[in-house]
Amino acid sequence: MKHKTLSSCLVLIATVGTMAQVCAQQQQDPTRTITSITGDLYRAQNNAHYTVFLVTSEGIILADPIGPDFATWLKAELAERFDVPVRYVIYSHYHDDHASGGDVFADTAEFIGHENMPVNLAREEGNESFKDVRAPDRTYSDRMTVTLGGKTVELVHSTPSHSDDSTILIFPEERTVFAVDFVSARRVPFRTMGGGPVAPWIEATAQLQTLDYDILAPGHGEIGTKADVDDYEGYLEDLVAAVTEGIAAGQSLEELQQSIMLEDYQEWAQYEAWRAENIQGTYEGLTSSEE
Ligand SMILES: [Zn+2]
Ligand SMILES: [Zn+2]
């Protein structure tokens, strides 16, 4: 779709020189939306990244700030729509593409993350990609409850998988969870999933399913239900079972990528793009853990 826009812009630039600036603007404009999940809980989008926020009479509880530009846009939108300040920013995990931009809310907000987050950020010191990630003011180890304006958010440390500092945000009244990068709805995992063992991802998903909720608001892709997370766990299990079987039969990675089609999931987002890499990551995780 981007390419189509680009080529039509190029034609316009060639024929009407003054359109060049308009086209450049169109190319750069990010997709940003705010949609209602339920009650006073909302989902905000910056292209492929999503966060959530809960509006209360005393202020807003925001999850990931996503980036400085998005956070600046969001701050203005929140001021206009709700007229209360962001009082908490709660990080899903330390990765810069989700955690950057917190400084925008530092005038009114307290920052909360899992206790492993500052450790992970310290390791990234000097890494330019992490320069806009503001460290949490407060950390927790297993669980934490945040209340504001009579509303509640529960923080639960997720079993280490995608990262070791992942927080699941539970909105009990809204029966919704916000969970990022280790789980999604009707969408296959990202590329090679880090190339480590997949078993911890299955454990993290199983842990998520022990929680009481109806709606999954993930950090990427469509919103889903608890049943979608069951299906996601099923995908991971099918993936591991098929790759394990293929390795036992002496198949190479290339052979596995050609034979394991995971047909039940072919309608899922990113199936075409990432199926082969999912197999690669699973293969690497299984073969390296055998050593
Ligand atoms: Zn991540
Ligand atoms: Zn992500």
The number of E-state strands comes to 13
Q: Please state the average pLDDT score.
A: 92
The helix-strand sequence is: HHEEEEHEHEHEEEEEHEEHHH
Bound molecules: zinc ion
> For the record, what CATH class of the largest domain applies?
Alpha Beta
The outline comes out as globular
Q: Can you summarize the main beta sheet?
A: 7 strands, mixed
- Radius of gyration over C-alpha positions, nearest whole angstrom: 21 Å
Distance between the termini: 44 Å
With strands numbered from the N-terminus, the spatial order across the biggest sheet is 1-2-3-4-5-6-7
CATH superfamily of the largest domain: Ribonuclease Z/Hydroxyacylglutathione hydrolase-like
β-sheet strand percentage: 15-25%
Helix and strand content put the structural class at alpha/beta
Query: How many domains, as an integer?
Result: 3
Please name the CATH architecture of the largest domain: 4-Layer Sandwich
**Roughly what percent helix?**
25-40%
Stretches with pLDDT under 50, minimum 5 residues: 1-23
Task: Compute the number of helices.
Answer: 9
CATH topology of the largest domain: Metallo-beta-lactamase, Chain A
